[in-house]
Amino acid sequence: IIQTQFNALDDEGLIKDRLNLLQYLCISTETSDVVVQCYKQVFKKHNKTCAGLLCVISVKLNEQQLDDVFEFFMDGFDDNHIICAQLILKIALNLNKRQLNKVFECLMNAFDKIDNGKIKFCDKCEHALATISSQLGGKQLDNALQYFIHRRPSYFYGDHTGAVQFILNLKEEQLDYFFECLINQLFDEKGDIYNRQSRAEFLGKFSMKWNERQLNDVFRYLINGLSGDLFFRISCAELLGKLSMKWNEKQLNDIFQYSINQLSDEKTDRNYAELLGELSMKWNERQLNDIFQCLINQLSDEKEDKYNRRKYAKLLGKLSMEWNEKQLNDAFNSLKDMLNKDYYWEYREALETITVKLSGKQFDNAFNYFISESKGICLFYGIAQRLDEKQINISLNYCMDKLNDKNEHPNIRIKCIRILEIISNKCNEQQLNEAFNSSMHIFTDKNNDKNLRDKCAELLGKISVNLNEKHFDDAFQYSNENIRGSCVQSLVTLSKKWNDKQLDITVQYLIDRFQNINGHDNFIFRNLLKGIAMKLNETQIDSVVTCLINGLKDNSTWNHTWYAEFIGFLSIKLNKKHLDDVFECLNGLEDENKCIRELCKTSLETISTKLNDKQLEKVINVLISGLKDEYTRESYAKSLGVFSTNLTDKQLENAIHTLIDGLKDKDKDVRNSCAKSLG
């Protein structure tokens, strides 16, 4: 019967739904037999779905039924070995020893066929073999280990969490053998360089499993590997750093001597510098002095590769906590010279890091340098918090001069705005007033650079909350006259200190704009209204709602949904009369349902408690009717859940029938939404 019904279905989504429902029929031995047989019958056409469901019901099957399932899979293993392997991994813990042995034997036979080219290579089968052999232990684990080491060593070096667990399950003798094979393969110079690299990374994952003798062997091989090929050298250097806690004092000294010698070699690369940095906490004062001098020499060596020099600069910054006062000053001067020659971010970042650690006089000299050099402006970002009052004032004047200079490059002027934002928290009232006037000048001089004006608007929003009333009024006025994008955010920030008059001006401004709403402005005014809605008084709410209702009465339906959404932002402030007027206006509109949906979209829970029975019924009917539209069903199903406690018996019945119909929808997301709403 079931097979006949499946043959009559031609909708993939419906077939999967029916197959999913069958799992809930496994309530007895007899019904479980029927379900298993059904999955086996349709397996060829729906193998992935059936395999997954067989895995789900496996905990409900008895031993005989589970044997039956495995016999079925083993018979067709060659054709479906990937799916079978995935199934084995999911239910391995439910198998007894006899079943595990049977699976192990099947997998080993499968690998013989893979090696002979009869079956396509499958990493899922590898993982299944590792999992099953780990559970069995003994001879089977030995056989699997031998197979992986000699025929599939790549299994250990890929992204397999199962490989990690497999190694952790090895006995001491097996681990010794694995270690010996790994080391031999790792340092086989005839081996593929990328495989050697992967083996080095894998070796590090199991450092906690190696004994002292093995760690000594690893260290010796890694040190020798530092003179190998480039990529292998990188892997060995990284591993030496990662295993730093394992090395004794003599081994650390060997790493230091080798790295410092290589760092002084003109043919060296940056890996030794990174290794020295990785182990910085291990070095004594003498070693740190040697590292510092070597980095300074390499940084100033014009014959040195530019990329390496940038890495040395980065390391100077990274180790800045280790340098004494003289070294910090020397590092600053060296990095400053490099920044003048090549403007790389590594030099700038290291210079910032070094500068904030300079002593008083040295910091003053560094500050004077930044002020005098055009490139120095970018370095203010990192040192702003260390500036004293005098330096704040100098920085302020410097930035304002640049900002007011129409001939200055726009990027420099924007950077000055950024600096003003950073130091504004440390400015006194007079300094804030001066910064404010410079920012206002960008608006009053009719500057056409939109990006510059936007940045100034952001700056105004940040500093205006700390201004006196006169400046605050000016900021408010110009933000209104130039309201676009970032200015909206500034207005919302400013609104925290608005008085009634200023709020009235903004409300009137919004009303004027709502009467001529168009294009991108919709988003701008929506964000402003949303940001200040909670601050509006009853009179202001009345004015805005009246304006928006008039918009809904307009013959053009183009902006109706916008007006409805805007009203929704005010939902928490709306009274009975407002809602009556809104629903009266919506009644009979061509796009009434869409408008009701937009009205409730952002305020479902709030507005549902304010509607009268008639209005509530209308909203619910709109949502139910929306369930019948395949394009809106998902969103309407979610919304209906909010109103579910307010449904009458008839409405609930209609909603349930419609949601059940939605379970047949071709769209998986729609089916899920309807299922959640029904739940």
From TrEMBL:
Coiled-coil parts of chain: none
InterPro entries noted in UniProt: ARM-like, ARM-type_fold
What is the top-level taxon of the source organism?
Answer: Eukaryota
Segments spanning the bilayer are none
**UniProt protein name:** PBS lyase HEAT domain protein repeat-containing protein
Species whose genome carries this gene: Reticulomyxa filosa
Q: What is the lineage of its organism?
A: Eukaryota, Sar, Rhizaria, Retaria, Foraminifera
